[in-house]
Every structure is written in structure tokens, then in C-alpha cells.
Amino acid sequence: MQAVFLLILIGVGLLSGAAIAYVIGAASIMTFILGGHANFMAALPQRLFSQLDVFAFLAMPLFIFAGDLMNRGGIASALIDFSMSLLGRVKGGLGHVNILTSVFFAGVSGSAVSDAAALGNSLVPEMQKRGYSLDYAVAITGASSIIGPIIPPSSILIFYGALMNTSVTALFAAGVVPGLLLAAVLMVMNAFYAWRDDHPGGGDPSTIPPIKKSFLRALPAMTLPIIILGGTLFGIMTPAEAAGVAVGAALIIGFSYRKLDLEAVRQSAIRTAVLLGALFIILCAISTFSYIAALDRLPQAIAAQITEWGLGPLQYLMLVNVVFLIAGMAMDVKAAVALFAPIFVPVALAMGIDPVHLGIVICFNISTGLLSPPIGGVLLILATTCNINYWRLIRATLPFFFAEVALLIVLTFFPAISLALPHALGLS
Hints:
Largest sheet: none
Structural class: mainly alpha
Subunit structure: The complex comprises the extracytoplasmic solute receptor protein and the two transmembrane proteins.
Helix content: over 70%
Number of strands: 0
Number of domains: 1
Oligomer: single chain
Subcellular location: Cell inner membrane
Protein name: TRAP transporter large permease protein
Strand content: under 5%
Number of helices: 20
Order of helices and strands: HHHHHHHHHHHHHHHHHHHH
Radius of gyration: 22 Å
Domain TRAP C4-dicarboxylate transport system permease DctM subunit: 9-417
Function: Part of the tripartite ATP-independent periplasmic (TRAP) transport system.
Distance between the termini: 38 Å
């Protein structure tokens, strides 16, 4: 009963428009007091500290810092030029360039919102100039940016692994194939739209960058993800050490491109600190929620209900997908993972579902929520960056959103897609 009261308080708070950390934290504290559990709050500070005192979390701020440095350091233009030299000549080429650049970006920033902002500023105007409609240019940019949180290094995979005590290295390995598969699906869709709507090719061949020159300029940025991923997958580096390497490389690359200076580094550090502070406040609020939910035996109640319904592992995974898709439509990605994963994941693990497969399904699911109304983060960024009506943008992105949901269902029913690489490397 107390858990129901808690969820109602959180729902009312979210509808009021208050910040999610304050809503969850205040509702949890009220439930402690009104539910007669106030004496248990004495252990709350220790529980909050233990929630944050996780070594895997160290990698997350470093990867955020590295991604921001690379976005400021001219990486975007180098990767776009190389992608253009490879695919800019084919019909619908700039759509393919958009997707391929997102694949390269995924190994740099690991953030869908950062990728969407970078490409929205640089590639969308170029696509309009070459004859693409604004609607399509922004829609394909938003759809391809979802690749960022799936292909490692990914902050959401690090966050989930640290939160649910799942190997971050195994999650990194498991994210490679689904991320590339998503890119392939989007390229097929782009090819179809290019044929149906007669999208232009790359235009004047003289505007296509020379492949050798663009490759050499983009090589440092493309090599870094290989070093990071190879180092973590083969046990040479921990994810935190790999993140440190990424920061060092981002500084070297940015200064070598002459796009980075000390003021830009300072601004990047400030932005990283602000993002990290907001994230840790959410983690503290979620930890308080998880504590009262555990006292009220909410996970056990869910398990009992699932048993009563007679759901098997696949049916339960589909239920989890529905919950996280709805959550992703209205909540921040990491907040939704932190709020719902501790409730639903233990039940899934008790049913024998592989924790790495479960992590990929949840992270793919919640990342897809960035492209869904009413407050998808990628949609909001692109609507502002590209000066397009929000609801017009939603209509343009819906076909891509449904394609990503369809791929999510495929990943749910076929665990071997996600687990092939972890199994081959002995990580799962």
C-alpha cells in the first residue's frame, strides 16, 4: 500500500513539472514518515554514499568530459568530411553520411543528445542546401543519433552496469552488434526514401572531400574508439582507465586540430561538473526511493504478481519493454533507468534472463525513448537547434521510431544477437 502511495506522489509531482530528483526524493521522504518508517532514515546517509561509491561510475564523467572536448575540438567536421568522401556520391548520400557519422560519433561521445546537437548544427543545413527537405534532414539526424548510446563507449551502459552490478565490459561488447544493426536498418530506410522521394546524390563531385586527405584527418578520432574498446574487451584497461585515455587523446586531437584552447577546456570541465552534479542528485533521490521500496517489499510484490499472471521470461521482457518505453517518453534516460531497473531487473534475473542481454534491451529501449513524444530529449534539442516545429518534427520521425521499436522487439526475442560477441570473448 505504501508503495502505491509513493508512486502516486511521484506521478503527481512529475505532472506538476517539478524537477524529477526533487519529486522522487520528497515523495520518498514523505512515505518514510507517513508510513511509520522514519526510524529507518538513520541508515539513509550510509545507503546514499554506498550508492555513489562504485568504481564503475568513475568512467562516466571522464567519458562525458572526453566527448565534450571532442565536440569542441573539431572532431565533428573531420568525421563528416570522411563520411562524405565515402558515401557522398551515391543517391541519398547525405542521409547515409548522417548515419555513418553517427556511428563514428558513437565511439567518441556515447551521447545521443550531443550527437544530435553536433549534426543538427553542421549536417542538417548542408542537407537542406543540397535539396533535402528540412523535415527529413532533421528526422534522419534524430534517428541516427540513437546509435550513440548503444555502441561503446556509452555512458548509459556504464550507468546501468554500475547501478545493477553488471559487467560494463560485457555490456560494451554486447552493444556493438545491436548498434551496427541499427545503423544498417536506418541505411536501408534511407535508401528506400531516396528512391521513393528522389533524394539528391552528393552533388558536384568537386565538393566531395578527397578520401585520402579526409581519412588522414579523421584517423585519430576513428582510432580512439578501437583502442578504447579493444583495451577494455581484452582486459588491457578497465573502463575507467579507458575513459582516462579518451580524455588525454581528446586533448591531444583538439589541440592538434587547433580548434581547442584552454578556455574551451575550462568550459568543457564546467559542463561536465554540472551534468555530473545533476546526475548524482538523481542517484541520491533514486536510492532513497529504492530503500523505501525494498522496505515495502515492492520487488517481491511484483514477482508474486508476475507468478500469478503466469508470465514466462519472454512475456516478462515484453512487459519490461512497455514500462521502459512509456518511461522514456516522459523522463530523462538515466533517471528512468535508476527508477525502474532496481524494481524490475531482480525479477528478470530470478527468471533466468541473462543480465547482459537484459541490460542491452533496457538501454536500447530507454534510448529509443529519446526519439518519442511528448518530451523526447533528442526531439527537443533538434527542434531548438534546427528551428523546426516540434509536432512537425514528431510526424517526420515516427517511421524511424517505429523501425527502432521493431528492432528492439527482435533484440528481445533473439538474445544471441546481443550475446554473440560477449560469448566469443568469454565475457558472459
